[in-house]
Amino acid sequence: MEIVLAIGIGILTASGVWLLLRPRTFQVIIGLSLLGYAVNLFIFAMGRLKAGAPPLVNPGEVDTSAYADPVPQALVLTAIVISFALTALYLVVLLTARGITGTDHVDGQEPE
Amino acid sequence: MNQATLLLIPFATPFIAAIAASFLPTKARNAAASLSSLTALIGVFSLLWLYPTVASGEVVRFAAEWLPSLDVAFRLRLDGFAWLFALIVQAIGLLVVIYARYYMSPEDPVPRFFSFLMAFMGAMTGVVLAGDMIQLVLFWELTSFFSFLLIGYWNHSEAAQNGAKMALTVTALGGLSLLAGVVVLGRIVGSFDMDIVLASGQIIKDSPLYLPAMVLMMLGALTKSAQFPFHFWLPRAMAAPTPVSAYLHSATMVKAGVFLMVRFWPVLAGTPEWGYLIGGAGMITLLFGAWAAVFQNDLKGLLAYSTISHLGLITLLLGMGTPLAAVAAIFHIVNHATFKASLFMAAGVIDHESGTRDLRRLSGLRKLMPITATLAIVAAGAMAGVPLLNGFLSKEMFLTEALEATEGRDLSLLVPVLATIASALSVLYSVRFIHQAFFGPAPTDLPKTPHEPPRWMRFPIELLVLTCVLVGVIPALTIAPLLKLAVLSVLGPETPSYSVSIWHGFNLPLLMSAIALVGGTLAYVLLGKHINRAERAWIIGRFSGKRAFDRSMRFLTMTAEWTVRQLGSRKQQSRIRMLVLFAILAATVAAGATGLGFAEAGIKIQRPGIGFTMLWVIASGCAIAAAWQAKYHRLAAVSLMAGCGLVSAITFVWFSAPDLAVTQMLVEIVTGVLLLLGLRWLPKRSVEMAPSKTDFRSRRRRAADFAIAILAGTGMAVMAFAVMTRPGESHLANFFLEESYPRGGGRNVVNVLLVDFRAFDTMGEITVLGIVGLTIWALLRRFRPAEESRGITEQRRVQDRHDQRHEQRKSGDTLKETMLIPAVVMKWTFPFIILLALHLFLRGHDLPGGGFAAGVAMSVAFILQYMAEGARWVEDRLRIRPLYWIGGGLLISALTGVASWLFNYPFLTTYFQYGSLPWVEKVPMATAVLFDLGVALLVVGATVLMLTAIAHQSLRKARDVEPVQSAEEGL
C-alpha cells in the first residue's frame, strides 16, 4: 500500500511540476492543482496509513492506537478548501491578464 | 492615584495624542499644537507628582505580561536618572511644541508633524522608562523610525529624503546591533529584567561573552549618539524642520546613546576594553566635531557638529570609567540639552525671520532683533563654557576629570592637553557664530528684512536660557538636588563626593578654562577671515563619512543588482524553474544530512492490494494524460484532473479519513464548475496552430523540464515512502484523541481540532477564503475580455443558426432542449442538497461532516440552479447575497470567540453540553457549533461569490456587444 501511494504521489508531483514549467497559463493552473493533490496526500501520509480506523472516538477510555492520526487530516482539510480558493483566484487573475495583454502566455507577451 | 499607574501617563498619553492628531484636518494647526502641548504638560505634571517618591530613593515600577514564554515583560521603571531624563524629554518637548506652533508654516500639513512629534515623545519616554531590555530596544528602534519620518517631513525636498534615509540606515542598523548585544547580555544574566541585569555587574564582567555583548550594545549607542565614525548622519538630519533639530537631534534622541551608556555604566564600564572603545570614540569625536564645527557656514550645520562634539565629550567622560567622570557626564547631558535646544531655536528664528542660515551672509542682527540676539549670545556663552553659565560648571568638572582620571597612566599629559584644545575650539566656533550673526555692519542682501519673532515663539528660548543662567549662578539651589537624585540611582554606593559650585579656588582646571577662552577668542581674531573664506574644513576636509556611506550603499545596491542579474530572470518559466530546483536542492541537502531512515527495523509494510493498485494506475494515467493534454485539450485536462481528485478522495476514505473524502469530493465539484466557466475566456488553441517542434532550443528546454519533473516526482515519492515506513508514534495525535471528547465534547476528532483546539487557525483560514472571494469579485467587476473572446461563442452560434433555419423555433431553443432533462434533475435536487448540507453540518461534531463540507455542499445547491436555468432565471426568483453570507459568517465566528471573554476565558474558548432538538436526535450544543456555523456560512458565501462572479461575465459581455451600456455590475 505504502509503495503504491508513494509512487502515486511521485507521479502526481512530476506531472504537476512539468505543467508548472509550461508557458501557457492554463497548463500552470492544472499543474498547480495536480501538485496540490500530491502535497495534500503527502501531508496525509505523514500520519501513516491505517485502514478502517477513522478518528471518531467513543467517550470513555480511548485506545489511541486504534485510530488514525487526526492532526494531518485536520491540516489537509483546510488545505483542500484553501487550494480551491487559490485555484479560483489564479483562474481569475489569468483571465484578467489575458484580457489585458491579449495573450495567455505566462510572461504576458508571446515569445519572440 | 496609584504611583505605578501614574507612570503610564507620560508614556501612553503621547501615543494617544499622536493618533488623535493624525485624524485632525490638514489645516488644524492650532488644534494640533494645543493637543500636543496639553499632552506634554500632563507628562511634566505627572512626573513632578512622582518626584517625592523618586526623591525618597524609591524606584517606581509598573509591570504587565507581554511575552511570558520568552521571559520578556512590559515593564516601566522610574528611578532618579530615568526621572531626570524623562523630565528633559517632556519639558523640552513642551517648549518645542510651543515653538513649532509658530515656526511651522500654515501651508504645511501641520497635524501630521505634531502627530509624529508626539509619537516620538512617547517612544523616547519608552526608552527612558524601559524596565526590560527587549522593550528598550523596541522603543529605541521606534525613535529611529519617527526620527526618519520627522527628518523627511518636507518630503518633496531631496535633501530631506536623503538625510532621513541615511539617519534611519545608520541608527536602525545600530539598533539591530543593540538588540544582538542585549540578547547576549540577557543570556549572561539569565533575564531581560533591568533590575536583575543592573544588579549583576560582576557576573557580566566575568563572563567570556562580556566583550561581544559590550561591543554590540555600544555600537548601538555610538551610532545613535553620532560618534565618530558614525557621526555623518547628524549634519544631514538638519534637513528636518528646526523644532525637530532642537528636540530630537540635540536634546533627546541623540542623547539616547549616552543614556544607554549611563544606564549600563555600572555593569559594563571600568574594564580596559570599555576605556579604549568608549573613551577613544569620545575623544576622537570631541576633537573632530569641534574642528569641523569651526568651518561650518550653515548655522544649523555648526550647531550639529557642535552637538557631535559635545556628545563626544560626554562619551569620553563615561569612557574614563571613574564615578566622578560619570557624574560630570550626567550633568553635562542636562546642560547640553538646555543650551543647545535654545541655540537651535534661535537659529530657527534667524532662518525664519531673515530667510537664510548662511553665516557669511548674516551680519549685524543685534540691532534688528536685540532680544533674540541677547538670548543667543548667552546660550552660546554656555556652549563655550563661560563662567556663571551652566556649561561652565560641567566643563570644569570635565577638565578636572581629564587631569585626574589619567594621572599616572601612559600619556597622562595627552588627555588634558587635548581636552583644553577641544574647549578652545568650542570657544572659537561659539565666538564665530555670535560675531558673524549678530555683530558687524547691518546685513545687506537678505531674502527678508529680519525683525523680532512673535512673543510666544521666543518664550521657549527665554525659558531655556533662564535655566542656563540659574543653573550657572545658583547651582546648589537648582540643579544640585536633581543631579544627586540621578547620580545616586546610577552609581548607588559608588557615588563619590562631589560639589557643584562655581568657585573651587585657583586651580589647574580653571587655568585650562582660561587658556581655552582666551585661546579660542584669539584664534578667531587672528584667523576668522581665513576661516570664512575656507571652502571646506582644513586638514579633515577631504575625509567624508558621507562619501564612505554612499560608497558602501552603492556597493550593496550593485551587489544586489548583480545577484539579480545572475540568478533572476524576466521570464516566468525561468523563475519557477529556479524555485523548483532550489526546493529540490534544499530537500536533498536535508535528506543527505540526516539520512532518510529506510533501515529501521521492525516495520510492517502493508502489501499492496490489487484494487488500490488499480486505482492508482488510473490516477497516474489521468495525471500524465492531463500533463500531456493541458495545452490543446483543456476540457479533457479538466476531466482528467478531476479523475486524480476522485482517486485522492477514495484514498482518503480508504485510509480512515472520511472527513477529507467528503470535503475533497465536494470541492472537486466546485473546482470543476469553476474551471469550466473559465474555459470560455481563453484563446483558441489547436495542434495545427503549434509551431514546429524542431527548434533545438525548445527541445532542449523541454528535455530539461522533463528531467526536473522526474527528479521532483522521484524525490517526493522517496520521501513519502521513507516516512510512511518508519514507526510513527505521535504524542500530538494521542493528546487530541484522548482529549477530544472530555475537552471538546465531540467524537469527530478532526472536526473538534478544527473548530475547538485550533479554532483560531480556522478563523484565519476562513478570513483568507473571504478575502479571496472579495478579490475575485473586485477583479471581475472591471473585467475586459480579449477581443476574440467577446460576443457569442462558436457553439452558441451553431445552435442559433440551426434554430433560425426552422420557422417554428426561436434562437436559444436548442440550448434549452439540450439541458432539458438535466435541468429538471438539478432543479429538483435543490431541496435535497440543502438537506444534505444541513445534515453534514449537524453531525459534524461527532461524525464526518462539519462546516467546511456543509458550506461547499450548500454552494453546490445554488450553483446547480445557475447551471440549470441561467443566472437571470435564478436571480429573478432567489436573491442570494454572498457578501452578506461572508460578512455574517465571519462575524458569527468572531463573536463566538469574543463571547468567551465575557466569562473571563481566552478568545475562542468553547463551552459544550448536549441538548436535543425536536425531531432530531441528541445534538451537541457546544459553542463550537456556532463557530462552525460561521465557517459554513462564509464558505457558502465565498464559493457562491466566486462562481457567480465568473458566470455573470457571460451575461454582461453578451450585452456589451450591443451599444447599450449595461448598468448592472457584479451581483
Helix content of chain B: over 70%
Strand coverage percent of chain A: under 5%
Question: Number of DSSP helices of chain A?
Answer: 3
Largest pleated sheet of chain B? 2 strands, antiparallel
Low-confidence stretches of chain A: none
Quaternary form? heterodimer
Strand order of the largest sheet of chain B: 1-2
> What form of chain A results from the Cα inertia axes?
elongated
Which class best fits the helix and strand makeup of chain B?
mainly alpha
Task: Give start-end ranges of low-pLDDT stretches of chain B.
Answer: 961-971
Q: Write down the Rg of chain A.
A: 19 Å
- Largest contact between chains: A-B, 87 and 115 residues
Order of helices and strands of chain A: HHH
Strand and helix map with partners:
The complex is a heterodimer of chains A (112) and B (971).
Chain A: H1 2-20, H2 25-45, H3 70-101
Chain B: H1 3-6, H2 8-22, H3 29-55, E1 60-67, E2 72-78, H4 80-103, H5 110-129, H6 133-151, H7 158-189, H8 194-198, H9 201-206, H10 210-224, H11 233-236, H12 242-251, H13 255-263, H14 265-268, H15 272-294, H16 299-320, H17 323-354, H18 365-368, H19 370-384, H20 390-404, H21 414-438, H22 455-473, H23 479-491, H24 508-533, H25 545-567, H26 572-594, H27 610-629, H28 634-654, H29 658-679, H30 696-724, H31 731-744, H32 749-757, H33 759-781, H34 794-805, H35 813-818, H36 820-843, H37 851-877, H38 882-902, E3 914-916, E4 922-924, H39 927-960
Antiparallel strand pairs in B: 1-2, 3-4
Helix pairs in contact in B: 2-3, 2-5, 3-4, 3-5, 4-5, 4-12, 4-17, 4-22, 4-23, 5-6, 6-7, 7-10, 10-13, 10-15, 12-17, 13-16, 15-16, 15-21, 16-17, 17-19, 17-20, 17-22, 17-23, 19-21, 19-22, 20-21, 20-22, 20-24, 21-24, 26-30, 27-28, 28-29, 29-37, 29-39, 31-32, 32-33, 33-38, 33-39, 36-37, 37-39, ...
